[in-house]
Amino acid sequence: MNSPLKSDRDRSIMLWVVAVGFFMQTLDSTIVNTALPAMARSLGESPLRMQSVIIAYSLTMAVIIPASGWLADRFGTRTIFQTAIVLFVAGSVLCAYSSQLAWLVAARVIQGVGGAMLLPVGRLAVLRTFPRDQYLRALSFVAIPGMVGPLIGPTLGGWLTQALSWHWIFLINVPVGLAGGIATLRYMPNSKLAGLGGFDLGGYVLLATAMVTLSFSLDGLAELGFQHATVLMLLIGSMAALTAYVLHAGRKSQPLFPLKLFHIHSFSVGLLGNLFARIGNGAMPFLIPLTLQLSLGYSPLDAGLMMLPVTAAGMLSKRIATNLIERHGYRRVLVANTFTVGLAMASFALISPAQPLWLLLLQLAVFGAVNSVQFTAMNTVTLKDLGSAGASSGNSMLSMVQMLSMSLAVTSAGALLATFQQVFGAHGLTGVLPAFHATFVCVGLITSASAWIFLQLSPEVRRHAGEPAQPGDEVLH
Fold first, then answer.
1. Domains of the chain, first to last
2. Distance between CA atoms of residues 245 and 297, nearest Å
């Protein structure tokens, strides 16, 4: 199964290829946020109706991630990684040359299919190439660019949009992807897994159906303009597909995600907490740049720069999360911090043209700090008790839920904005600030309410001595 490369130099180059691929995938999850108003003007759309550009990417990734590992085992890591790069670059080019919103959304789906396979397949290639005693160092190296990408995305997207045009937030992927594709052919072994069992296609279709119909039902209230009966039927369809998967997985010997994972207390609570808490805080990278540009008159670059306090505070608070968990345990930290994150989100309802800049910067920094603690604690408590047998399935399920919640977060924020525009009688972009204020309060309440989920954690669930802290994902997701 392992396919060691000929030299340390070859392994190092392959590591760089995987790291850059992960960087591109995570960068494109946030780089469009500050460019949405400019993209809307170019395409003749309302900036408040552009959430499908984000949703298409994150929802596609959520749908494809569960299949990526099996595809790599069946067809080889190099083949699938190379395919992922080709799809990602092709999607990026199509995004840049889209003249209509529908074409842009379709191109983002193609980009998302490629992006969904870059990280899991790249990580698998690393595990099968490096000796066991080098796993930790190799995977840590790969993880760093993936954490940096989303942090610089809003600022880079704002600068490219202002200095050149929004098309360049996608075109920058082309030369990097071409170089990565060539290096993949030369330096990545095409390792496969002998004796591979069949793929749980039935379970995969049921889960994918549940995720897509749920997202469409929520987006149908805002951007798609569905009738209420259609939305209700989609919601019922989503619940039916999820129920069918549970019944399917219960009788299948090798389901896509075994139900026995949910017998692990910390995993089941952590996964549900991840899903619902992120529906609130995942909306913020979408809402904040829009508010700054549409209501306060910020340029794309200035809106991107205003996200730097979130990034800086989030990075500084990483070590604080570990100390807090060691001292107070997961339950106390997650309950208190989830509630605090919700309050920090709701505080953005104070944004106004008359608000002092220092107060806005303080709000952003506080939000970044508590949000970073939240991600670190949620990820760690979810994965800490899985053991080696359930680590692969559990980690894949967590990755899927993270991307699904990002899609649902932007979908929910868009629906709330559309609703409050009607409530406050805002026409176009005139008087839209009250709608943003009400949306910030709602997403804050959603997040604070999810603290109840973490209240179900056993008080004895603590970080064990010597247990490595799981790397928190990007500050803004």
1. 1-199 (1.20.1250.20), 201-255 (no CATH), 260-477 (1.20.1250.20)
2. 47
